[in-house]
Amino acid sequence: MTLLFTNCTILPMTGEQTPDEFVGAVGVVDNRLALVSADPVRIEAFRRDYPDRQEIDAAGKLLMPGLINTHCHVAMTLQRGYADDIPLMSWLHDYIWPFEAKQTPDEIELGAELGIVEMLLGGTTLFVDMYWSEHRIAEAVRRLGIRAMLGACYLDGNWDTFQDDLNRLMAISSECSRIRPVVAPHAPYSCAPETLQRGKELARNLGLLYTIHIAETQDEVKQIQERYGTTPTRHLDALGVLDDRTIGAHCVHVTDEDIRILKERGVAVAHNPQSNMKISSGVAPIARMRREGVLCTIATDGTCSNNDLDMWDEMRSATFLQKVSTMDPVVLPAYEILKMATVDAARAVGMAGELGVIREGALADFILIDLCKPHLMPVHNLVANLVYCANAADVDTVVVDGRIVVEERRVNGVDVAALCRRAQQAADRIVRRVAESK
């Protein structure tokens, strides 16, 4: 497919410094950015070279990289609002895991479809997931056109099920370049040392990312201290599972030594500010970690601990939370937050230069924001407006892998009203099964 977006404001997000936006055109050939320019001569040359292109006049819109959500549980949309205002461990043991035990694979795929549509409408073009039956989530990913790193999750006792899920994921990913499998042990308190190491060895042998919850709550820190006499981060480091192919979700309760380890091992931190606030997990010291050189990114977590998949809201919460917790208004300025959700996130998933930027040769994953909104006017600083004012409903168009998947806020091939009805019916069925089992 060949696309040409003209007359748009372009935010390149190079990552090195605050970018200067400019008005120009972006051309896509197959799944790559073939033109990023304000030069009328080059734009006309692209038109001549590709006479069968689809050309879109994007006047009044901003073209920027798609957002990358580095930690979520996308199929948990069916649990949105099911168990609110409950401490984490009770939330997991008394509500979430019993609910999950009554889900069918079809319902997991349906929940994933609902979550993917929500993310696409909000401008997320890639997400890193952690859940069960990820091969079924992969089917929703393949069908809807988003890009995903799908983490087959395991706890102690379900290794065989996990390995079957991972093998199926590997087969699907060989047929769809937008899907990459990930090895995803749940947490250091729910996985024995030998299974954590076994998963990491598998990830290294297959060249896969490894993602795990780390130091999310004080209760987790207490459990690891009682069992192993150390912190969750140092425990994982002693097992040899931390490296630059690891994404650690949360990292709320970390010591100075933990931060040093995360930096030296090259671990990427997926920061989930709204989930951490809602469950009262605490405030991750993101500003301090970034000062120390830790790669930090933005994520939503699941929809029953957030309760949405809106990365714009997450970015705003992340910067405000760091400002108020440090009592420093200059901490995490707007451009740094936007980098965390684009450029830095691409580094975290091993796709630096390919994603998170608008530059010729990069993969064509980008979004168009409708700037003609009262809450986005006037524009004194475009990046500040994006981080402090924009929301998911401002996303007009989404392109993933060179293909338009959202156009004028319509997800291609999806009847959203019918999807919502099916999701409600499925959630009601699962709740009935849970009640009948008690």
UniProtKB/TrEMBL annotation:
As one GO molecular function, the record gives: metal ion binding
Q: Does the keyword Electron transport apply?
A: no
Q: Which InterPro entries match?
A: Amidohydro-rel, Deaminase_MtaD/DadD, Metal-dep_hydrolase_composite, Metal_Hydrolase, MTA/SAH_deaminase
- What cofactor is this protein dependent on? Zn(2+)
**Which Pfam families does the UniProt entry name for this protein?**
Amidohydro_1
Record CDD domains: ATZ_TRZ_like
What are the Amidohydrolase-related domain coordinates in residue numbering? 63-405
Keywords, A to Z, come to: Hydrolase, Metal-binding, Zinc
Q: Which domain of life is it from?
A: Bacteria
Q: What reaction is this protein's catalytic activity?
A: S-adenosyl-L-homocysteine + H2O + H(+) = S-inosyl-L-homocysteine + NH4(+); S-methyl-5'-thioadenosine + H2O + H(+) = S-methyl-5'-thioinosine + NH4(+)
What's the family?
Answer: Belongs to the metallo-dependent hydrolases superfamily. MTA/SAH deaminase family.
Q: What is the protein's name according to its record?
A: 5-methylthioadenosine/S-adenosylhomocysteine deaminase
